[in-house]
């Protein structure tokens, strides 16, 4: 048997495990009477920070490449030319965008944005992790990636396809989620969650909690009003609720303790423990 040796150029064997920075662009906009910002972002990680007494919106956009080699379909120059970056004054709001007009290639735009803490935000994002803190209110439409939100005293509305949601210290919260774990703590107002799959943990809510879930364990603790859960499968534990706990469940164990009252309207299988 004859062994065949194939010699390849060294470049073909190089594999980058960390994103390669191609370029960084900084944009600034002075603000005065604006009350919020509308932001559109594509693939890439996003960090948003609200700061008190800030009068300038700053956006830093870094073009990164997540893979390399001799078979790339798009060059770095093509990726830079495909960047669509905007930071404009649009009346009483700021309009911003950081997207890539590419049909192929392993490029992304990582964005760091600084805004006044008094701003509300309407954010549309496709993929990548999001970290957001210190805004007045938030509307988020996200496709994929983990999301962490902190210190938003106004209403928070989230539509998410996949990825973990970690939310702390907000006003009234509304979540429509397809998959991924949801962790919520310290909400002033009601919490409404419509979820397909993934574990749900909710704690320390001044208002009521409404959960509609297909699968995954649910843990709710420390609620100042009522709790209403409509669940298909997964264990449910509810404790320390001032108001009435109402549960409709198909399968999984149910445990409640230290609640105003517990009403299990429907349960097909699993143990029920009321303490």
Architecture overview:
By secondary structure, the chain is mostly beta strands. The chain folds into two domains: 20-132, no CATH class; 146-275, no CATH class. Helices cover 2% and strands 66% of the residues. It has one helix and 23 strands. It has one helix at residues 76-81, and strands at 20-30, 36-43, 46-51, 56-65, 83-90, 93-100, 107-116, 120-127, 130-133, 137-144, 147-152, 156-162, 165-170, 173-179, 182-187, 191-197, 200-205, 209-215, 218-223, 227-233, 236-251, 254-269, 272-274. The chain has a 23-stranded mixed beta sheet that branches. A hairpin with a 2-residue loop joins strand 5 and strand 6. The chain is elongated. The model is unreliable at 1-16 (pLDDT under 50).
Shape: elongated
Q: Helicity, in percent?
A: under 10%
Number of strands: 23
Structural class: mainly beta
Biggest sheet, in brief? 23 strands, mixed
Distance between the termini: 75 Å
Question: Can you tell me the number of structural domains?
Answer: 2
| Low-pLDDT segments, ≥5 res | 1-16
Note the beta-strand portion: over 45%
Instruction: Work out the radius of gyration.
Output: 23 Å
Q: What kind of oligomer do you see?
A: single chain
Average pLDDT level: 90
């Amino acid at each position: 048997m004859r062994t065949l040796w194939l010699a390849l150029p060294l470049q073909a064997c190089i594999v980058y495990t960390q994103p390669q920075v191609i370029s960084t662009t900084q944009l600034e906009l002075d603000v005065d009477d604006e009350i919020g910002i509308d932001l559109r972002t594509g693939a890439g990680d996003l960090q948003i920070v609200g700061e008190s007494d800030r009068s300038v919106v700053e956006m830093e956009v870094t073009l990164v490449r997540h893979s390399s080699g001799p078979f790339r379909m798009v060059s770095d120059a093509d990726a830079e030319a495909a960047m669509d970056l905007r930071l404009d004054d649009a009346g009483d709001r700021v309009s911003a965008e950081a997207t890539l007009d590419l049909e192929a290639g392993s490029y992304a735009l990582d964005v760091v944005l600084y805004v006044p803490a008094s701003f509300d935000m309407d954010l549309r994002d496709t993929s990548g992790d999001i970290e957001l803190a210190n805004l007045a209110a938030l509307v988020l439409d996200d496709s994929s990636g983990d999301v962490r939100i902190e210190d938003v005293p106004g209403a928070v509305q989230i539509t998410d396809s996949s990825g973990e949601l970690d939310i702390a210290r907000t006003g009234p919260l509304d979540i429509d989620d397809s998959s991924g774990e949801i962790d919520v703590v310290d909400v002033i107002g009601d919490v409404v969650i419509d979820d397909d799959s993934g574990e749900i943990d909710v704690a320390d809510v001044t208002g009521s909690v409404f959960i509609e879930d297909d699968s995954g364990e649910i843990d709710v603790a420390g609620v100042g009003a009522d709790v209403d859960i409509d669940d298909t499968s997964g264990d449910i534990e509810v404790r320390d609720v001032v108001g009435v706990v109402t549960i409709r469940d198909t399968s999984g164990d149910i445990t409640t303790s230290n609640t105003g009252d517990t009403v299990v309207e429907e349960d097909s299988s699993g143990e029920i423990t009321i303490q």
